[in-house]
Amino acid sequence: MPILDTPFARLDLIRQPEQPNDPLQAFDAADEYLLTHLHEQGLAADERVLVLNDSFGALACSLAPHARVTSSGDSHLGHLALQKNLERNGLSAAPLFVPASTTPEGSFDVVLIRIPKTLALLEEQLIRLHGRLAPNARVIAAAMIKHLPRAAGDLLEQYIGPVQASLAVKKARLLFAKPETRPAPRSPYPTRYRLDQPAIELLNHANLFCREGLDIGTRAFLPHLPSGLGTARVADLGCGNGILGIACALANPEAHLTLVDESYMAVQSTAENWRAILGERPVEIRPGDGLAEQPAGSLDLVLCNPPFHQQQVVGDFLAWRMFQQAKRALTPRGELWIVGNRHLGYHVKLKRLFERVEQVAATPKFVVLRAIR
Hints:
- Its EC number is 2.1.1.174.
- The protein is an alpha/beta fold.
- 27% of the residues lie in helices and 29% in strands.
- The protein starts with a strand and ends with a strand.
């Protein structure tokens, strides 16, 4: 297992979710570069440090014993990784964690930013920094060069101040933004779009997938959602803005819904959309590591449009894990309904877990599958 060795700490770090013989590590050269630079510049124990988008806690774990650290990000799995890595390395100085759906309380002397995949999230985070920077605050962003679009620097310049880029080290780069006094910016988030069927409007916070309109996989799934479910217990796994769970609830007025996502902004969007569309109808909406916390045999139906990436890493590991979680959470004869790209071959994977797998519908690009436990 690779060790993160910097002037601040020597750490044994793991990713979340864990998988056997994981070929990926929980930090990269951009983390190393950022920590090395910060140590060279100096960090006082009384300085308040805000760390944004620290994927698995590499930065916050390294700095926790040396300053007053707040970590903020949109990943529940990232939060779990931070907690586990603090414990794994015997670190008692735990940073404060603030979900990206909440604004961290300033003022901060140092802001360290890992550039996220979704630049809308970066924009919203930079907007929220307004009025939360101490005099002479240092704002430093980091990324691997292959994941550093020019637009990231443009956003730093727009909302913080002039930006200077470092030299590249191990294919990583730092961006230094010098804070300037600016008028309070107005956030363009959340965004909204309307659907015809069902006839509803959906709100979407900054880090949501397909924030400007319904993604084509969900569009293929919606006409085929099951009805006549009575009082069935239904979960929308990886709920995004809640559209599958909300549409299912509208078609099944007595069903009991649980909507889960690992993105805090997704959970925030889902909760606001549910209240706007379904009022006070009882529901469980929560951040989570999929259905890991769901009691075994407690669901009759799981709906899922599974992701095929975690941050910049593409693969079907998360989808396979969701399928396993769904099987465990379902009652005997319970059903998992999914939509997926044809080429991903989900029907083959589902047949390894479920008694029967049927194709419900298909388009040239997508298939809707029903797997019976």
